[in-house]
Amino acid sequence: MSLATDASDKPTLYKRIRADIEKRILTGEWPPGHRIPFEHELVARYGCSRMTVNKALSELAQADLIERRRRAGSFVRRPQHQSAVLKIADIRAEITALGRGYGYELISRKLRAATAADRERLGVKKAGKVVAISCRHSADKVPFAVEDRLIDLSSVPSAASADFSREPPGSWLLHHVPWTEAEHTISAIVADDRTAEALDIAVGAPCLVIDRYTWRSARTITAVRLLYPGDSHRLVARFKGG
Amino acid sequence: MSLATDASDKPTLYKRIRADIEKRILTGEWPPGHRIPFEHELVARYGCSRMTVNKALSELAQADLIERRRRAGSFVRRPQHQSAVLKIADIRAEITALGRGYGYELISRKLRAATAADRERLGVKKAGKVVAISCRHSADKVPFAVEDRLIDLSSVPSAASADFSREPPGSWLLHHVPWTEAEHTISAIVADDRTAEALDIAVGAPCLVIDRYTWRSARTITAVRLLYPGDSHRLVARFKGG
DNA sequence: TTGACTTATATGTCTAGACATATAATCGTA
DNA sequence: TACGATTATATGTCTAGACATATAAGTCAA
Question: Which of chain A's residues 72-111 bind strand D, using a 7 Å CB cutoff?
């Protein structure tokens, strides 16, 4: 029980309260369902005002570590839906982070009126024009991933004049389009002839597929399919309490 | 510009302030790098005390939507590292959520002193005993995934006496072990003979592999490998602003 | 021009109150 | 016993101040 008389006050008080509680939850001392002390008890224990403990508890609640119920108190939440933060870095960043030489190659770029297939893929009823891009990323000259992308020009008009022969469309979008939402679908396929050639792997070799669909406030921006050699590439998702 | 005289006060004031700012960021009206109004300006605009706007801004900062810098002000953050929330549901929950019949089958359960390979897999220097479990999950009698798991008994002693013939080890752990951290590695392989038979797919068919390594405060709990038929199963990761 | 010092200022934290509101618990009644 | 009304209480929000602190910007000297 760390009391208010704890002299090491490098972190601020509310942060120490939050850390104290978090620690008890993480170590299992206060298991899921456990009622943590009432605010007025913490006020007494730490000798501070209620706003201070309230701030600590509010942050824990925002982080889904505890659940607050009026009149009842605050309770440790159980690890809910198993979820993880999947870090899907910009491919260029990912490769350079590995200390390998990044290579980019534009295979094709077509500007066209949206076909029925394009509309289906972008999930829009009617679209004007789209840009269809096919390109390849490599690490130290070795094929790393092939990308097949569609950009909705009605959402991102400036993409029509962007030069994708040198800058990958993913990087370009990241720097030119504000906050977005996205949905990723990860699956596995075996390489067909075309994929095998593009990735320089054997036909029938496993490939990891990431389909990413990106929009901003109900407006589709882009749909992309990334194909990685499945036995060499790995996606790492880190999960922490939740 | 919504002023303090806005009468629709169903949500509380600080939530409205937060929502107002969030909306401007999401729509791109305030692009990344834009300096949002100073606290004292928001105080004037909404006619409230500084603590109220501070709470709104603090939550936006905690959600990584804005960055606060002393003396400089608060700024809209740019979509940082592309990351996504990957929902990896408990398999039973996942299947029942799809409205399909869940089936579970324990293939083998062995209690043994940890071998060198076990220690390697669990990432521990020395371990006492472990439980090795192999099982299969099915949806409407069709194989859905095969699971190959190792539980460190020095961390979870009660797992030695748990009955895994009826309850899947994943569900059991979820309910008996408090907050954990985990790391997932996702990759693709092609089915070998044994896998093909277990999943009732063709040899050479693509499989999605999830390797999950779980620990609690630096203490390994379990390591599991899940194999899914890759062309039928999909992992969906949703990403929202950040 | 550059570096060191000073100052102004926006955020960070905190207080000691207040009233609002949802709801668990109690009490009373059918 | 079951149900409806009442009450007590923990959290939710808010105020009008306060002092602390990091730092951008300005000032001045080498």
Answer: 72-74
Among residues 104-123 of chain A, which lie with CB inside 8 Å of chain B? none
Q: Do B186 and A180 touch (CB under 8 A)?
A: no
Q: What is the pLDDT of residues A144-188, one digit of tens each?
A: 999 999 999 999 999 999 999 999 999 898 878 877 788 888 889
Half-sphere exposure for A196 (CA within 13 Å, toward CB): 10
CB contact under 8 A, A178 and B25: yes
- pLDDT at position B82 is 59
Query: Which domains are seen in chain B, by residue range?
Result: 13-76 (1.10.10.10), 85-238 (3.40.1410.10)
- Contact call for B230 and A188, based on CB within 8 A: yes
Residue B4 predicted with pLDDT over 70: no
- Token pair 């030119």 is found at A176
Tokens standing for residue A53: 């403990």
B96 touches strand C (CB under 7 A): no
Axis-axis angle for helices B13-26, B39-46 (nearest 10): 120
Interface check for B82 against chain A (CB to CB < 8 A): the answer is: yes
Cβ(B149)–Cβ(B121) below 8 Å? no
**Strand C at less than 7 A from CB of A68:** no
**Could you tell me the distance in Å between the CA of residue B71 and the C1' of nucleotide C4?**
20
Q: For the residues B123-146, what does the mean pLDDT come to?
A: 93
In percent, how much of chain A has pLDDT > 70?
A: 89
Whether the per-residue pLDDT at A113 is higher than 90: the answer is: yes
Q: Is the per-residue pLDDT at B78 higher than 90?
A: no
How many residues are present in chain B?
Answer: 242
